[in-house]
Amino acid sequence: SQITVRINSAPIYGDFDVLPVDGGFASVTNFSLSAFLCVDDDLPLSYVFLYIDSRGNSISLAEKSKFFSLSTLLPSGNETADDVLNLQSIVIDALNAETSEEGSVRVSIFVAPTAQEVTDIIFKNLEEYRSLRYYSEYVAQIGQAGSLIADSTSPFLDALDSTMETLANYSAVLLQGVTNGLSKIDYALKI
What we know:
By secondary structure, the protein is an alpha+beta fold.
């Protein structure tokens, strides 16, 4: 008589990707962590995504999931190591065999500019357009400022909101562009 014993092997890991590749800002940038092309006979696979804190502890970013990708905010990386945050992805099969892959990404601390800094940057750029008499591009820049505001985070919104009010008083030529920018601010604040 024969007994066959089947040994459960761990999943074969594919790729661990972190986007954006260039990194971003802590608690501001939405990062995507993905464990692509992992293979195992014992389905379904589950995934866990973690980061390694400054003490070397593994901290889970979410509960174990059937999804191979996670969209999340991350804490800042290690300041003494160029803001690099070490990450880990664990793939687990239906019989609890697991394999992992490590990666890293640069996550800097976000420092919102002051209203004056934002105003100075916008006015400098707008003055260049105005001096060249490219009024349509000048007005388009105001619209882009509004888009920037709509896509920004709350501290940045406050600074740019103040700047947009200043721009409204700046020139009658800009009134239409400023109106568009302010409507984008209003829309962003309602979301």
